[in-house]
User: Which sequence fits this backbone?
């Protein structure tokens, strides 16, 4: 099968398997290139990671998805092992820019783990800051919705798209060296009730995100996705779901707490890159307005929040 090249932020992924979520690009692209090597699940050998040492572990409390990252610094080519126990293994060799993949799940699950969990860490090796966040743009303005999984980033992004904004990225905000926001893919992940309200904005029927998630994947109509780098964010909303009080509240957030929350929402593979990340965070705190957005997660509140943010950004 012929190898094709796909754009994801400012890296190029070459793959013998089609990646329909991503935009295909010419083979001679100047972006940082990573070759994807898909292997048979039965060919996985535990001896491949015998020299790897634990680096970090993350658990998604919403779906019990566990990601363990390990490092083999003894290798001539510094290697990272991304392990989703009993689901998939990814080994990234930094020097030759290749990512070997072994997966026990279906391709939709493998693609989800690759794009939404592994690639954000790879992007952190090439860019000053990568946040777990959704971002949209309109009239040379960009805004970010930052928060943990399940906090409502995609739901609010979806509602604000209905107010005339374009999607830059559904689940990560990647800043390049000029602090522009880089586009990833033109689809959004929503729970079924939220997905049904966006039928007029999608170009294809919705599909299930993965075997481990009941979220639906919606491919937006072309004019609703910004395929070009977006401007530095004028505002960042740090989400805090509130199950007790009805309605929502938007208020300025302290610089100290903003810094703590943004660090906790960032992707960082190598500790040596932390100084570059901190400089980027300082730039954001100095030039963007930071708000805390607390709300009860309902379809109605998401609609009202989108209207309020749209009005706030119009001034």
Assistant:
């Amino acid at each position: 099968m012929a190898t094709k090249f796909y754009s994801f932020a400012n890296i190029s992924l070459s793959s013998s398997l089609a990646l329909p979520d991503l935009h295909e690009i010419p083979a001679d692209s100047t972006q940082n290139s990573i070759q994807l090597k898909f292997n048979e699940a039965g060919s996985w050998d535990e001896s491949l990671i015998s020299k790897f040492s634990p680096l970090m572990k993350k658990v998604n409390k919403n779906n019990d998805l566990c990601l363990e990252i390990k490092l083999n610094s003894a290798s001539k080519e510094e290697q990272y092992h991304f392990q989703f126990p009993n689901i998939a293994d990814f080994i990234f060799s930094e020097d030759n820019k290749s990512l070997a993949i072994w997966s026990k799940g279906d391709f939709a699950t493998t693609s989800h783990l690759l794009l939404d969990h592994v690639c954000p860490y790879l992007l952190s090796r090439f860019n000053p800051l990568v946040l777990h966040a959704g971002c949209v743009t309109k009239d040379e303005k960009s805004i970010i919705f930052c928060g943990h999984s399940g906090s409502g980033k995609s739901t609010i992004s979806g509602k604000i798209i209905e107010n005339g904004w374009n999607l830059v990225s559904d689940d990560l905000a990647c800043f390049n060296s000029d602090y522009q926001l880089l586009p990833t893919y033109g689809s959004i992940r929503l729970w079924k009730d939220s997905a049904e309200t966006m039928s007029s904005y999608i170009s294809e029927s919705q599909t299930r995100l993965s075997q481990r998630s009941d979220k639906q994947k919606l491919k937006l109509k072309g004019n609703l996705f910004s395929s070009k780098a977006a401007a530095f964010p004028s505002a960042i909303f740090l989400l805090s779901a509130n199950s007790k009080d009805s309605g929502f509240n938007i208020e300025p957030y302290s610089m100290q707490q903003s810094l703590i929350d943004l660090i906790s929402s960032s992707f960082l593979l190598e500790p040596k890159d932390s100084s570059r990340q901190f400089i980027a965070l300082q730039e954001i705190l100095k030039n963007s307005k930071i708000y805390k957005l607390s709300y009860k997660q309902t379809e109605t509140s998401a609609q009202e929040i989108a209207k309020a943010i749209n009005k706030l950004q119009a001034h």
In short: The radius of gyration is 19 Å.
